[in-house]
Design brief:
Residues 85-269 form the BD-FAE-like domain. Pfam families: BD-FAE. This protein is an alpha/beta fold. The protein has one domain: Rossmann fold (3-Layer(aba) Sandwich). Helix content is 32%, strand content 19%. The protein contains ten helices and nine strands. It has helices at 21-41, 114-122, 142-156, 158-161, 175-182, 213-219, 227-232, 260-271, 288-291, 296-307; strands spanning 45-48, 64-71, 82-88, 94-100, 126-130, 163-173, 196-200, 246-251, 276-281. Strands 1-9-8-7-6-4-5-3-2 form a nine-stranded mixed beta sheet, sandwiched between helices.
């Protein structure tokens, strides 16, 4: 879920919460206090799943170019979809990251991920920051199919883009984390699987949100009528042996998509002996964990450096 989107969102028990209602009631003073608190707590985090000492990687700041509005869907696709390509100005085959924005599957913009794209490009990653179809006009699995098509396009054009097709990761936040994680499902075709996943604020188990209007719009059904479909769309039930390494990050105060989602994902990956890390940002909620990442983006980038 990102700023500027409809005010309905997911919460732990499927109730509705209006983003920003508390801020409006308190005016500018409350906004400033909230901002100050988020900045103060942004450095407080719990990082689990590290193998040995945390790996530190040297800072890089390479130049890059951005190619905007590149069409990645073929003729005949249900929609003409585009992406921005961030290409580092260094030679040789490079790792790549597919970026997927959030927005409750009903909205959002790829430009919301530009900050992450910029950081990755400066570290030498080719970044493909995509748009995808929205619900309710397009139901699941349309959004996943769009992300998979973007991955296929990236690999099909790897030579021209100077990308190593065997070093491609997916990174998403909120709804984008859901889609990125499905690209790491254990039963995904090896040709369509990524080598690592970074997932922030992930709604991992749809069964916990039976009354969510957003999931209802995405699925076009109810949990009572389509438990099998809702389960198949839940990443926590799709990961297993064969899944790539996962880096999960989440706001510890997330009341929209509870941190238990990320904890359940970590447990499922651990049970399957899949390398997984969980970075919980104490004091941050769903939106503040995106706006003030509390070191999560740096940690996620270091994770990719180690796994890619």
């Amino acid at each position: 879920m990102l700023p500027g989107l409809p005010q309905q969102s997911l919460v732990r028990r499927g109730h509705l919460h209006r983003i920003g209602a508390g801020l409006r009631s308190g005016g500018m003073k409350t906004k400033l206090l909230t901002l100050a608190l988020a900045l103060l707590l942004a450095g407080c985090a719990t990082h689990t799943g590290l193998a040995g000492s945390p790996k530190t990687t040297p800072e890089m700041d390479v130049g890059y170019a951005v190619q905007k509005d590149m069409r990645y869907t073929p003729d005949g696709w249900p929609a003409e979809l585009r992406a921005d390509l961030w290409r580092p100005a260094i030679g040789g085959a490079k790792p790549a990251v597919l970026l997927i924005h959030g927005g409750g599957w009903v909205g959002g913009k790829r430009q919301h991920m530009d900050g992450i794209a910029r950081r990755l490009a400066r570290r030498g990653y080719v970044v493909m920051n995509i748009s995808y179809r929205f619900a309710p006009q397009s139901r699941h699995p349309a959004q996943f199919e769009d992300a998979r098509q973007a991955l296929r396009w990236l690999r099909a054009n790897h030579a021209a883009l100077q990308v190593d097709p065997q070093r491609v990761a997916a990174w998403g936040y909120s709804a984008g984390a859901h889609l990125a994680s499905l690209l790491g499902a254990a039963d995904t075709s090896p040709a369509d699987r990524v080598q690592a996943v970074v997932a922030g604020g992930i709604p991992a188990d749809f069964r916990n949100y039976p009354d969510s209007p957003l999931i209802g719009k995405l699925m076009g059904t109810t949990l009572a009528d389509d438990r099998a479909g809702w389960s198949a769309a839940s990443p926590v039930l799709r990961v297993g042996r064969g899944s790539p390494p996962f880096f999960l990050y989440h706001g510890g105060w997330d009341r929209l998509v509870a941190v238990e989602n990320a904890e359940a994902m970590k447990a499922a990956l651990d049970a399957a002996d899949v390398p997984a890390e969980l970075y919980v940002q104490r004091g941050l909620g769903h939106i503040s964990a995106f706006l003030f990442d509390g070191g999560a983006v740096r940690a996620g980038t270091a994770f990719l450096d180690a796994k890619m």
